[in-house]
Write a structure and sequence with these properties.
Elements: H1 2-15, H2 31-36, H3 43-50, H4 65-78, H5 110-123, E1 138-139, E2 144-147, E3 159-164, E4 171-175, E5 179-184, E6 190-196, E7 201-206, E8 212-216, E9 228-236, E10 239-249, E11 252-258, E12 267-272, E13 279-285, E14 290-296, E15 301-307, E16 316-321, E17 326-335, E18 338-347, E19 353-359, E20 368-373, E21 388-394, E22 400-407, E23 411-417, E24 426-431, E25 444-451, E26 454-459, E27 468-474, E28 483-488, E29 505-510
Parallel strand pairs: 1-26
Antiparallel strand pairs: 2-29, 3-4, 4-5, 5-6, 7-8, 8-9, 9-10, 11-12, 12-13, 13-14, 15-16, 16-17, 17-18, 19-20, 20-21, 21-22, 23-24, 24-25, 25-26, 27-28, 28-29
GO molecular function: electron transfer activity; heme binding; metal ion binding
Organism: Algoriphagus aquaeductus
Keywords: Heme, Iron, Metal-binding, Signal
Length: about 525
């Protein structure tokens, strides 16, 4: 017993050094170890032990008192502790939650829980903390002209995907209700084609012969169902033929296609976001079919990226994980289908990671991690001062440090590029959960880089209160510069017939050329 307690104490001392954005150097004590100990721990020590056994320990200040009172009971139930106040409420399994998410045996006593709960409620602010002082955005985005296409028919504005074809400049639009539209920007975004699909197209990859792979989620709402598919589409005359590549995917949101095993064939890295269950897996091409390699058995995989991170000539992977165990992970390619996992960044569970890029933003020859966080569709739907846009740079030890942060409520989408072609990279971010009372209105911000690492933010001159869900860049008109298209997702049109004309997106037309 004494040896076990010393090991537990060592873990708690170690956790004292954990920050909000820090990689753990050694694992914290398990829930079982904590439940078997008889140490007299303070509320803070209990939080550092219990909370950090599953994810980065959150500081009390990330939520206000009222919100903690909503969130903490669910955390308690996950540790198997039910109190009198829970009588009459539905059990997790009654709501379709898979077994194993909520423990059937308690890992914490009521006495310890009360101390842990008191730590958060006593140290949390009364109200959500305000944003730190920041450079106020200027009105009007330099070099861009806003266009609002006028569609003269009624259709739900439920855009799930926007992509600009790199050769033709045509816009491919995924719609929640089983459709993929091909629109011609040269003809006022007139519809060139309409392709029936499974529910909610979210990713498309074109092939040299103009066939394409399409990823559809199957269900957009939180679910543990496996209805997502990746399909291969080929055109025969005026019709499209669909063949399944992968099926029974758990609410997939992103696929990266590259050659990780060096055989000259396409492999697939699939982010199955899921809900309570999910996974990130790599499907390597074989002589016949594909072999699945499970790289992460957690929900919340949001985006992956093929990159030769270590410069050894083969492709590695960067992956953004969201949900509770948030962070950016490197999977180093060791060959023969083997990958070594290395966390690069870890975040507290309410951080709301949404999207990322890996680019040389500052022009120093080293690529940085650019991240937006602002997902607010959870149990803590309040304005969060830590939502925003961040740049992380590698230090001499190879570890990432935050070098720049701009607060932006609900930041959810990101594009990076030298849009004004001045030799410096600019950023564009959208928000699905903005502060609708904030002025100037900040559901879209363009960050023009003035000097290395110095950005001036701009917002639209015309205030548009659409719900922006998607953002993409590309050359719509073939003039050699990149335009921006921002997609609308009007939640109220999910459950009632729309009365207004279709408004699936707006365009920021680059007027550089």
């Amino acid at each position: 017993m004494k040896g076990r307690l010393w090991g537990l104490l060592g873990g708690i001392v170690m956790l004292n050094s954990c920050g909000q954005i820090a990689e753990r150097k050694q694992p914290p004590p398990s829930l079982y170890q904590l439940s078997q100990s008889d140490l007299n721990l303070s509320g803070e020590q209990l939080a550092k032990g219990y909370c950090a056994s599953c994810h980065v320990m959150p500081d009390p200040e990330i939520l206000d008192k009222a919100t903690w009172k909503k969130v903490l009971p669910d955390m308690r139930k996950r540790m198997g502790l039910y109190l009198e106040e829970d009588f009459g409420t539905s059990l997790p399994e009654d709501e379709g939650v898979p077994e194993g998410i909520y423990s059937k045996i308690p890992f914490i006593t009521q006495e310890r829980w009360k101390k842990l709960e008191a730590y958060y409620l006593e140290n949390a602010p009364d109200y959500p903390l305000p944003q730190i002082p920041k450079v106020s955005p200027k009105s009007g985005i330099p070099g861009f002209q806003l266009e609002e296409p006028d569609f003269q028919f009624v259709r739900p504005s439920l855009t799930t995907m926007l992509r600009i074809h790199p050769q033709t400049g045509r816009l491919f639009l995924g719609h929640r209700f089983r459709s993929l539209f091909e629109l011609d920007p040269a003809l006022g975004f007139s519809q060139r084609d309409s392709i029936p699909t499974a529910i909610a197209p979210v990713e498309i990859h074109w092939n040299p012969d103009q066939s394409f792979e399409l990823l559809t989620m199957g269900l957009m709402d939180p679910a543990n169902d496996s209805l997502g598919v990746i399909s291969h589409f080929t055109k025969s005359g005026k019709s499209w033929n669909e063949s399944l590549v992968f099926s029974k995917l758990m609410r997939p949101v992103h696929v990266e296609i590259a050659d990780w095993n060096g055989d000259g064939k396409s492999d697939y890295a699939i982010c199955e976001f899921g809900n309570h269950l999910g996974q990130f897996s790599l499907h390597l091409s074989q002589a016949s079919g594909y072999q699945q390699h499970m790289l992460k058995k957690d929900s919340g995989a949001r985006r992956s990226m093929a990159v030769d991170y270590d410069g050894d000539g083969d492709l590695d992977m960067l992956v953004l994980m969201t949900q509770a165990k948030e962070g950016i992970i490197l999977f180093e390619n060791l060959g023969d289908g083997k990958f070594r996992e290395k966390p690069l960044l870890s975040f507290q569970p309410a951080f709301g990671s949404s999207d990322f890029r890996f680019e040389d933003v500052t022009g120093d020859g080293q690529r940085e991690l650019i991240l937006v966080n602002g997902d607010n569709a959870d149990q803590s739907q309040i304005l969060k001062n830590y939502h925003g846009v961040r740049i992380f740079a590698r230090d001499q030890k190879g570890e990432y440090q935050e070098k720049w942060f701009y607060p932006m409520y609900g930041a959810s989408g990101l594009e990076v590029g030298d849009f004004d072609q001045d030799g410096m990279v600019d950023l564009v971010a959208i928000s699905f959960f903005p502060d609708r009372n904030q002025r100037p209105y900040q559901n879209l911000i363009y960050f023009k880089q003035m000097n290395s690492g110095v950005f001036q933010p701009y917002v639209l001159e015309k205030q548009l209160e659409d719900h922006w869900l998607t953002l993409t860049k590309g050359d719509l008109d073939g003039d050699g510069d990149e335009d921006l298209v921002i997609g609308t997702f009007a939640f109220d049109q999910l459950y009632q017939a729309p009365k207004e004309n279709w408004r699936p997106f707006v365009v920021l037309r680059n007027k550089l050329k």
